[in-house]
Sequence to fold (393 residues):
Amino acid sequence: MNFKVGSVLGTSALAMTLMLAACGSDDNSSNVERGDDGSSSSVEEKSSSSTTESSSSEDVDVPKGTRAATLDDLEKNMTLGEMFGTELYFASGNKQGVFSLWIQDASSMAVIAVHSDFKGGVIKVSTDNGSFMGSDSKSADEMQDFIEKTATLKFIVNEKDQLQVSINDGDYKDVKKSPVDVDRNDISDANELHGTKLTCKNESEKLEQVYSFYKDSYIVEEKVGDSTTWSAGSYDIQRGYLLMVTELFESEAYSLVMASLSKKFKLSIQAGSTLECTKAELDTKEVDGEKLAGSWVAYDEDTKWALSLDSNGDYTLEWTLSKVPQGKRSGVWAVFGDQLILMNKSCTVYADGSKCKSAVKGAVEKLDPEKGFTYKHNDSAPVPTEWELPQYE
Fold:
């Protein structure tokens, strides 16, 4: 069954395996044009990240006598009835932020996977927070059109304690449990991946992927030949498949990766490569992003750096030399395990000629919300590693 893979996030599409692709210059810095005042224009903006998109609304109108559904109301596998000319399945898996819609019949197989907080029992289905993969069929084509036009699923529990769903503000209909027969040779529970590191290789393709699986997020670092890159996002195992929804990335990444993972740790990527993996335990301590959010400063002789990590996912980094502005970056931020990722949307660089990487990641250590933290980042610019709380008078 031929598969149409998920869309590519980034500035260009490269022909390679289903996984990540490295692109751009050797130093992965953005291209900038220098202005007359010695400053530069912003980096070329990349495709939207699901981290910055609101996947649902807290204030949801529900019919009288009903209530908005919560995660506790969801089964692991359900059916939403007939749609796209066939049965439409819905999966919540381990309820760790990834939800999926499925077509699986004799002639078609397709999946939409999205990242959502499920607030108010609502899931937005769009290319801003998810992606599509599917076979070449009429039903799959209709499903792909469904996500590209953006859709909304609203889940409620009625007065009879029955879970129901409304699709695009249509009539509410019952949601029923629909157990799935999984392969006993495959890993089918995402809990088995929590806190693990998989080093996966395909020698014939000179391909290596190293996955770090945290409680509800992952980071993968990939090497293809001499090129390396990374991406991060949310994951779950649903209906027998490992689903990885990309949120932040260094240069270019597929928005959705779908694979089966055997208990002997053979990773078979749908429409992609097959890799042999070795498992190890992660030797890291996950960082609480809520404790990291806020304002931080750092000093290097006469240079002052100010880092703002807003609770809405936006970030800014500004620096001055003897109180004269020297540069500014802005974009989105998120924590994956112990890794703080800063993905740039714009970068203004002044006379020193510094370049911006498209994204920066690194380990956060010794976090004390009342004092500061250490950020062991991979930035090519001379950004400090030691940060502290600003002093106010």
About this structure: Residues 138-148 form the longest helix (11 residues). Confidence is low (pLDDT under 50) at residues 11-57.
